[in-house]
Design a protein that fits this description.
eight-stranded parallel β-sheet, two-stranded antiparallel ribbon, globular
């Protein structure tokens, strides 16, 4: 297989050989022990945030249906304890994120016993503090799954993966077999320099895995978390910031840091776009006033160019944060709490992605081409249709 970004593999495997699978009987025994935690998390949109944002995020999701939190960082259990103490009862996970950054841990790194125990004491499902599973690292993958199984019930094996695990069919087949045989739930974190689900073969791999019947969660995603839920994810997390919506490959830029721009979620475009870029689009599309008016609690009926007028960066980030979170949960609620059948719900999601693509095209014509359709929208339109019943066939988006 090609592609080496994101670090080297942790063993010498160069092709997905059929290594001996985990013990079938042990995996089957665990898979039949249905813990209540799965019912609590089923079809839940999780908001993934840093621990410093825990209180604010919890207040924004506390009264929302089908929502929960993923607290990210080594101190996540401490923040989780504080939230529970203050009455937060929504689904909650702790992500150690030891798989990210230039100093990330490999998949073979042992779990931290204190990390495991701290989640047990809070009566939370245990999300393992796994290291990164590189390209072809079968040994690392099997190690995470085996150690997760040994932890007993209510355990989620965190699988931070090189994109080849979903993008290459042979590796995907092996991954699917290993997960199924282990009998444990898994939480995927997908590495990519941009958006992994903007790559059609990666999205196809994800949807294939979701259709396999194994309990699969998706972490560190964006708007696509809603789509993953429509297509069978047990739960899916959307990050509050760009850094929490992606797992970037190891950097070769010697630690140089460029502050991320403040982005806001545009509901009719199903996309996060920089606040200043949104303001330009609003000004250049006077015929689309109704699309740019937002009734969320932050905007309160104002045009979406108001974010660009906020001069204080902290204040701008806070406004964009609460707006985007509310809009994303709205999108999820309309799909989850509808009377649609599962296939109709999937079809509705793909239709929304298709319509959002047309909106992007329309805006792009007005801003002289400085606006393109995000690749993930085209991926969902094209690949998602493959996983629908025949009546879900979609019209192709025009290009330009």
């Amino acid at each position: 297989m090609s592609g080496t970004d994101g670090g080297s593999a942790q063993d010498s495997t160069t092709s997905p050989q059929r290594l001996p699978l985990l013990d079938e009987r042990a995996g089957a025994a665990i898979s039949t022990e249905k813990s209540n935690w799965m019912d609590a998390f089923r079809d839940t949109l999780l908001i993934q945030c840093d621990t410093a944002e825990a209180r604010e995020a919890s207040s924004l999701v506390a009264d929302r249906r089908g929502a929960g939190l993923v607290l990210t960082g080594s101190d996540a259990p401490v923040a989780a304890r504080a939230l529970r103490k203050h009455g937060f009862e929504k689904p909650l996970l702790c992500d150690a994120a030891r798989y990210k950054g230039n100093g990330r841990y490999p998949a073979s790194e042992p779990f931290d016993n204190q990390w495991i125990l701290s989640q047990r004491k809070l009566d939370l499902p245990v999300l393992t503090d796994s290291g990164y599973v590189g390209e072809g690292d079968v040994t690392g993958l099997r190690s995470i799954l085996a150690r997760s199984r040994e932890l007993g019930e209510a355990v989620i094996a965190c699988l931070p993966l090189h994109r080849s695990w979903l993008g290459e069919r042979a590796w995907l087949t092996l991954l699917e077999e290993e997960i199924r045989t282990s009998g444990v739930a898994v939480a995927l974190v997908l590495e990519h320099p941009g958006d992994p689900l903007g790559v059609q073969k990666v999205l196809r791999g994800l949807l294939t895995l979701l259709a396999s019947g194994s309990p699969v969660l998706l972490l560190r995603s964006d708007v696509s978390a809603v789509g993953a839920l429509c297509f069978g994810a047990l739960a899916a997390a959307a990050g509050t910031t760009s850094g929490l919506r992606h797992l970037y490959p190891v950097s070769n830029e010697n630690g140089r840091f460029r502050p991320a721009q403040v982005s806001v979620l545009i509901e009719h475009c199903l996309s996060y776009v920089g606040a200043d870029k949104v303001a330009t689009a609003v000004q250049l599309t006077p015929d689309q006033v109704e699309r740019w008016e937002c009734d969320c609690h932050t905007c309160n009926g104002r045009m979406m160019d108001h974010f660009a007028t906020i001069l204080d960066r902290g204040e701008k980030q806070a406004a964009a944060y609460s707006h985007s979170l509310e809009i994303l949960i709205n999108v999820h609620e309309r799909l989850r709490f509808s009377s649609l059948t599962p296939n109709q719900r999937r079809n509705s999601w793909i239709e929304q992605c298709s319509v959002a693509g047309f909106y992007h095209l329309d805006i792009g014509r007005s801003v002289n081409g400085n606006w393109t359709i995000p690749r993930f929208l085209e991926s969902w339109r094209a690949v998602g249709a493959e996983f629908l019943e025949p009546e879900g066939a979609m019209q192709e988006l025009p290009r330009g």
